[in-house]
Write a structure and sequence with these properties.
heterodimer, A: 268 residues, mainly alpha, two-stranded antiparallel sheet, 71% helix, 2% strand, globular, B: 156 residues
């Protein structure tokens, strides 16, 4: 909220839910970019994956330091999940590192929800007067970008594993057998469509809702000193609970990524 | 909820991050972890080997100790036997020597006694002759009675 203006609840929330939109071609429309989402996610990608790279470059097979032990725990955790679900080949070639990327990146992007929006806004107003949303996963473009990438990779792996004929055969003949092929096609179409939708909307919904609840609490805080105290307590509670949501959603997103890759390799 | 260029941009960023992780982050760490796992496995195997060799060598040591103990006992018993034999031999030798010395001493004593007796006899004879001389001084001629006196001397 910019200081000095008359306070207005609708304006406050609307302000914080406005992306920093930069038109690229003509007057924008589809050809415009949410600079905030891209900027923050790229930054977090550099921070997260860069940190891993920095630690891994000096990794020793001897006694690991604290940093390396932390990264090894993280990698071990992701690898354990990948090992449990993906049993169709060498997971180290792609699936496990991809899952690590998803987990680390999504976790960091979700964690931006913890930063106090109004304090961050003091800085980001210098970049964008209209609004600057710092939670990239509360932008449906980001979650859809991830889910669609996973979806496309899933199709590619599916064709790779079964051949194009095998893939088509599966679309027409599974799960009810060749005689009921229209039903099979319908069934598979729904399944293939629902995957990226549920994958992306689950993350987006959780992060967006978390953001809104924080905004409502800060709105409560603006009502007076007593309300501010209550909002502080509620905000603390929500933030603590939100740690769980942030980590859980990152985990769920990673697990679904592994599961989809794994399903692509399964023969029916 | 409006889709726009951000979708494509984020997908590209995502692809780049995955590529980087697959290529540069995952493999070196995996190598380090696998190398450590191998080291640990080797270490455990070596420890197992060491335990086994320790067991076998302590068994060997026990065997050697038992053997040495038996041999020591044997040596001691042999030594004791020889000791007893030597004592016995020494005893026998000492007894023989003693007997021999005793016999020699006895012979000496007998010789001495014989000599003393001989001396005594001669002295008694001389004494008797002297006494007889004194009694028969005047009337008996010593030369005339020498035969008689010799006879007496021999009888003594």
């Amino acid at each position: 909220m910019a200081a000095g203006k008359e306070f207005n609840a609708t304006e406050y929330i609307g302000h914080h839910l406005t992306h920093d939109v930069r038109p690229f071609l003509g007057d924008g429309g589809f050809w415009s970019l949410h600079l905030d989402s891209v900027l923050v996610s790229v930054l977090l990608g550099f921070v997260g994956i860069g940190f891993l790279w920095w630690v891994v470059r000096g990794a020793t097979s001897g006694v690991p330091g604290k940093r390396q032990a932390f990264v090894e725990l993280l990698v071990g955790f992701v690898d354990e999940q990948a090992k449990g679900v993906f049993r169709h080949g060498d997971r180290n070639a792609f699936v496990a590192p991809a899952a690590l990327t998803v987990f680390v990146w999504v976790l960091l992007m979700n964690s931006m929800d913890f930063l106090p929006v109004d304090i961050v806004a003091m800085g980001t107003h210098k970049i964008s007067e209209h609004g600057f949303r710092i939670v990239p996963t509360a932008d449906i473009n980001t979650t859809f970008a991830l889910a669609l990438s996973v979806w496309i990779l899933m199709l590619v792996f599916s064709v790779q594993a079964k051949g194009f004929g095998g893939f088509l055969h599966e679309i027409f003949c599974s799960p009810f057998g060749a005689k009921l092929f229209p039903l099979n096609v319908l069934f598979n179409a729904i399944e293939y469509l629902s995957k990226p939708l549920s994958h992306s909307l689950r993350l987006y919904g959780n992060m967006y809702a978390g953001e809104i609840i924080f905004l409502l609490l800060w709105l409560l805080a603006a009502a007076g000193l007593g309300w501010a105290g209550l909002a502080f307590l509620l905000g603390l509670g929500w933030a603590i609970f939100h740690i769980l949501i942030v980590a859980l959603q990152a985990y769920v997103f990673m697990m679904l990524t592994i599961v989809y890759f794994s399903m692509a390799h399964e023969h029916h | 909820m409006n889709f726009n260029l951000t979708l494509i941009a984020q997908a590209l960023v995502f692809a780049a991050l995955i590529w980087f992780t697959v290529k540069f982050v995952w493999p070196p760490l995996l190598r380090a972890i696998e190398a450590r796992q191998k080291q640990i496995a080797d270490g455990l195997a070596a420890a197992e080997q060491g335990k086994k060799s320790l067991e076998s060598s302590s068994k060997q040591a026990e065997l050697a100790i038992a053997e040495a103990r038996a041999r020591a006992a044997e040596i001691i018993s042999q030594a004791e036997k020889r000791d007893a034999q030597m004592v016995e031999a020494a005893k026998v030798a000492a007894k023989t020597e003693g007997d021999r010395e005793k016999a020699a001493a006895k012979a000496d004593i007998q010789q001495e006694a014989q000599r003393a007796r001989e001396q005594l006899r001669e002295q008694v004879a001389a004494l008797a002759v002297a006494g007889a001389e004194k009694i028969l001084r005047r009337e008996v001629d010593a030369k005339a009675h020498a035969e008689l006196l010799d006879g007496i001397k021999k009888q003594l």
